[in-house]
């Protein structure tokens, strides 16, 4: 399935969303800047959102219910929800919880699936054969000259 797009399409895994919405990690700033400038589009599925909500509700994040609601609303403002789609051929991820990310990345032929998860990073070569780049923020910055320049300024 394709989505209406005129700019690069991205999926962020839960850890990247945490960097953006909870930790305000410096490494996320170039991505935020390009998004704010309207130079990329971010999508998620309802399953990805459910996982994110589960993670931010864990006690070690120390987020109140109100903070969790605000973080969730912010995610919905930044990205748009798309329906989950099955994809053939699929790439199997060793961690079932991460399967939703690679499935959506392939189904929507995203430009980037940004992640810190080693199970997803292990799928780089197989995803690349299907036209999807899987990588870290640093991988992305190295491949995207504008982002690299922004990373050096941050």
Automatic annotation (TrEMBL):
Residues 11-119 form the PIN domain. InterPro entries: PIN-like_dom_sf, PIN_dom, PIN_toxin-like. CDD domains: PIN_VapC-like (cd09854). This is Putative nucleic acid-binding protein. The lineage of its organism: Bacteria, Pseudomonadati, Pseudomonadota, Betaproteobacteria, Burkholderiales.
């Amino acid at each position: 399935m394709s989505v209406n797009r005129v700019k690069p399409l991205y999926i962020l895994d839960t850890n990247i969303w945490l960097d953006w919405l909870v930790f305000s990690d410096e490494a996320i700033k170039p991505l935020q800047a390009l998004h704010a400038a309207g130079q990329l589009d971010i999508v998620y599925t309802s399953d990805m959102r459910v996982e994110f909500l589960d993670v931010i509700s864990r006690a070690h994040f120390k987020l109140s219910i109100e903070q969790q609601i605000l973080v969730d609303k912010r995610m919905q403002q930044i990205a748009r929800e798309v329906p989950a789609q099955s994809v053939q051929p699929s790439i199997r991820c060793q961690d079932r919880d991460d399967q939703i990310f690679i499935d959506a990345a392939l189904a929507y032929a995203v430009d980037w699936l940004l992640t810190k998860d080693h199970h997803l990073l292990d799928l780089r070569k197989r995803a690349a054969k299907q036209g999807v780049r899987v990588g870290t923020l640093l991988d992305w910055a190295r491949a995207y000259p504008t982002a690299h320049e922004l990373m050096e300024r941050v």
